[in-house]
Each structure stands twice: as structure tokens, then as C-alpha cells.
Amino acid sequence: VKTITKLKPQPKTWPPAVPLEVLRRMSLYLRGLNQMKARGVSRATSAALVAPLNISAAQLRKDLSYFGKFGKCGLGYSVDALSADLKKILGTNKAWNVAVVGAGALGSALLKYHGFAELNLRVCAAFDTAPEKTGRVINGIMVRSMSEFPEVAAQNGIHVAILAVSRESAEAAAAFLIQHGVKAILNLSSVHLTAPAGVCVSNMDMSCELETLICRLGFRS
Amino acid sequence: VKTITKLKPQPKTWPPAVPLEVLRRMSLYLRGLNQMKARGVSRATSAALVAPLNISAAQLRKDLSYFGKFGKCGLGYSVDALSADLKKILGTNKAWNVAVVGAGALGSALLKYHGFAELNLRVCAAFDTAPEKTGRVINGIMVRSMSEFPEVAAQNGIHVAILAVSRESAEAAAAFLIQHGVKAILNLSSVHLTAPAGVCVSNMDMSCELETLICRLGFRS
To answer: How far is CA B79 from CA A10, B94, B112, in A?
Structure first.
């Protein structure tokens, strides 16, 4: 796999002054547009875009206004044009190489998942520290030793990693990745990681999310 | 597995007027307290509790104030007492039975995961619609046909489900679960599900999260 996306210097405003929830919705709008495109729909109304998300059309317009002017009043949006714009905003108009770090049950499941490709994300390498896990090939991707990460990451321009290691290993693994050029980590381990300057971390914590759900159930006593 | 937690009538305020982020932090505070307990620490300062989360002690006090008065000024918190209180607030002072729905790669990985037990969550049943996936036993849990869900859920008092099905199946599966008594769904499929009244849904969408991370990288052109 060749280097796909070269890192550019960081923009002056870092992080950009757009709420995270707005960025998430940009991704969800784009997904909706892709589904419309697949159904042969060429123009999208605000109402059609917001319906699956259960938010108002005003919210959509407010979200988009962070990034410029889109669509025409009363005519809705061109599906092709808006999806191209959203890809550009999100940065997935270009391909990104992604590493999966940790090849246990969860990491292996991610290597088998085909959904990232449509986002222009190519899971191109996998790593683990356990010798019994390295050397295996999952869905065409060889699991390598963590010690190979620096070389493979440099060769493939890997700046994005999905961290699927145990709670005990998460902090050290993240530090190692960051030391070797990773700028964005999707952390799936149940440890809250905070990011040093210039690095983005998203903590997706199933345990925390489940416990929060139980709490919301409201059946406490 | 016997019925563990019986459903109580819904509280009058639904959902409770506590921001979701506060509930998530309650779960993270509890995790921190558990780690302190494991290290033999009996009293926790605000500073020690907030350090791993990179937030202020004032935020901790504000979060806790939603639920009552805790700790003594200048003395910090009793690790045992606060963790018992947090469990009660979160509702995980009692055990909950949980179903994993979808036994593909991701669902199977969840069945192998041991981390939920410490939250008093017992993954006690797994379901899939594909005949080739049913009948398998993963980590002691038999994968059953979805058609068995109503009976198994009723027998085991299952009101919480982790949805690990494909994007195409997610909406129908969620509707079926809700129809048969599920009140809380952790949705891991890359579809945004909205919940009917009285049901809680948490959408954990790796694709959306990854795309948001790429955007935050700020290297768009």
C-alpha cells in the first residue's frame, strides 16, 4: 500500500471552532446523501436530510453555515454537490490509511469489517504485542508485531489508528503510536485517554455507554 | 439465568433532567474509584478523581450536585461510600441481564469480552437471524434464533440489548426488540436509530466517529 494522504501543516485554528456534535452530524448527513444517491435521488430537501436524525431543518442549516453556503432556498440541495462538499469538509475526499492496533477479538472483528472503505478509509495494517497473535492474516491483512509499527506507519503514511487493546495496555500503546506519527486515535478500550496537543482522540467506551444507558432507564432504587 | 432486576414503573420525569455527559462522567468517576479501591486507597480527593478525565474539580462537584451532597469539604470522598452512591445513581448496584443481538464478528467479540461483569451487567443470551450462526456456543453463551428472543427475554428479564447487526437489519431488529420489552439499546451498527418514548438508545457509530476524527485532523484541502 502506497502513501495516500500526506500530512499538511496544522491549520492556525486548532481545533477548529466547530462543536464536535456538528462534525458528527456532517458525517451523518453525508451518509444520508450516499443512501439517496444509491436510490437514484438527485435533489434532497432539508426535511429529507434531517428526518432520520430526528432534528430540525433549522439545525441542518445552522450546522452547514459553519462551513459556507450550500443549496438554494426552496430548491433544496443537489445530492452530488452537497456530498462532494461534505466529503471535502470532513477530509474524506481523499483516502486515509488506518491501522488497527490490538488483534484480539475486537480488533479481529474490525479487520473483517467492510464498512470503512466507503468512507475512503483503508485499514491497511494491524499490530499486536502478543507473539501468538502476530503472523496471522485476517481478511488479507497481516497482524504484525508492534515493533514494526514505526516502519510500516512511515511507509504507508499512517496517521490514524483504531486502538483495540486491553485497558491495561491502552495508555502505553497510545503513547507509542503518537510518538510514531499517529495524529488521530479511535480508542475502543475502556480507558479514558486524553490527547496531547495536536492529536485527536475519540474515546468510544462501551462500558461507560452501557452504564449510562442503565442509568437512563431510570429504574434505580 | 434467573430474572435479576425487575422493571419498575417509569419515574415521572423522563428522561431525567441530567445532561448525558454528566451521566457518562458518573460512570467514569465510578471506574476511577474502583481502580483506587483495587490499589487500597480509601479516601479520594476531587483532584485525584478528575485528573484522568482532564476536567476541573469544580466540574466534579457540579456533576455530583445533580444527585445530592457527597463528601466533606476538605476531607475528600470515602472511596467506598462514593462508589456505593454512584452505583446506586447509575442503577448498577443491581445486576442486569443483557442480550447481544447479532453474532457476526463484532457480536462474537462482545460475547468474549469479560469487562461487562464488573459493571454488574451479565451478557446472558445471544441471538442472530442467520441459521448458520445459531446453535454455536461462544464463551458459554448459546447463539439462538431471533424467534426465541421473546421467550428468553421474558424468562430472563432482559431489558437491555447490544445491537451488533448489519446496517440493513438494524431498524427492524431494534423494533422487534422494543416490541418484546427491551428498554435500552446500545446500537453498534452504523445506522442512526431514534428511540420511541420510554426507550433509550445510544448510537455508538465507529464510522461516524472515524470520519469526525479525520475532520478534526484538519488537513482538509
So the answer is: 42, 19, 30
**Residue A91 distance to chain B (closest CA, Å):** 5
- Closest partner CB to A88 (pick from B31, B212, B220): B220
Distance CA B211, CA A29 (A): 12
Say which DSSP state A96 is in: E
Which of A7, A26, A216 is facing B219, going by the closest CB pair? A7
Express each pLDDT in A136-145 by its tens digit. 999 999 999 9
Of all residues in chain B, the one with the smallest CA distance to A220 is B91
Q: Identify the helix (H) or strand (E) that includes residue B215.
A: helix B206-217
- The number of beta carbons lying within 10 Å of the beta carbon of residue A70 is 16
A68-96 mean pLDDT? 91
B 101-140 residues inside an 8 A Cβ radius of A: 104-106, 108-110, 112-113, 115-116, 119, 121
Instruction: Using a CB–CB cutoff of 8 Å, tell me whether B16 touches chain A.
Output: yes
Alpha helices in chain A (DSSP H): 20-38, 46-50, 57-65, 79-90, 105-112, 149-156, 167-179, 206-217
C-beta atoms of A54 and B194 within 8 A = yes
Q: Does B4 touch chain A (CB under 8 A)?
A: no
Q: What is the dihedral of CA B161, B110, A118, A8, to 10 degrees?
A: 120
Element (H, E) at B203: strand B200-203
pLDDT the model gives residue B10: 56
- Other CB atoms within 10 A of residue A161 CB: 29
Tens digit of each residue's pLDDT, chain B (221 residues): 454 566 655 554 444 578 999 999 999 999 999 999 999 999 999 999 999 999 999 999 999 999 988 877 778 899 999 999 999 999 999 999 999 999 999 999 999 998 899 899 999 999 999 999 999 999 999 999 999 999 999 999 999 999 999 999 999 999 999 999 999 999 999 999 998 988 999 999 999 999 999 998 875 43
Interface check B79 vs A, CB under 8 A: no
Q: Residue B26 and residue A190: Cβ atoms within 8 Å?
A: no
B34 touches chain A (CB under 8 A): no
C-alpha cell at B81: 461510600
The whole-angstrom distance between B72's CA and the closest CA on chain A is 24
